[in-house]
Amino acid sequence: MKKQKEKREVLDKHETPRHRVHLPGFISDKEVGLGDVIKHATYAVGIKPCGGCARRAAALNRWMAFSGKR
């Protein structure tokens, strides 16, 4: 357990910068992560989230975000 925590801390320190995609007119002014987009889309088609879904959504949110303004 301790090794996993140390590994996570190392990953957080060396985290790559988030990719930002600007979609003016398509999305509101606030930023929306890729994980949140996928989570809302799967919920809309009737797929219920599991425990791993939250972790994947958080990881995808750290990786890419969409915004409406520059």
List keywords for this structure.
about 70 residues, alpha+beta, 3 strands
Give a description of the structure.
51% of the residues lie in helices and 14% in strands. It has helices at residues 2-13, 34-44, 51-63, and strands at 19-22, 32-33, 64-67. The protein has a three-stranded mixed beta sheet with strand order 1-3-2. With 70 residues, the protein is α+β, with helices and mostly antiparallel strands. The chain has a domain at 33-70. The longest helix is centred in the last third of the chain and has 13 residues, at 51-63. The protein has three helices and three strands.
Report the C-alpha radius of gyration, rounded. 15 Å
Percent helix: 40-55%
> Given the structure, what is the number of helices?
3
What string, H for helix and E for strand, traces the elements in order?
HEEHHE
What is the straight-line distance between the termini? 41 Å
The largest sheet is: 3 strands, mixed
Number of extended strands:
3
User: Which sequence of strands runs across the widest sheet?
Assistant: 1-3-2
The share of residues in extended strands comes to 5-15%
List low-confidence stretches.
none
How would the blueprint of this fold be written?
Blueprint: H1 2-13, E1 19-22, E2 32-33, H2 34-44, H3 51-63, E3 64-67
Parallel strand pairs: 1-3
Antiparallel strand pairs: 2-3
Task: Provide a quick synopsis of the model.
The protein has three helices and three strands; from the N terminus they run αββααβ. The chain has 70 residues and is α+β, with helices and mostly antiparallel strands.
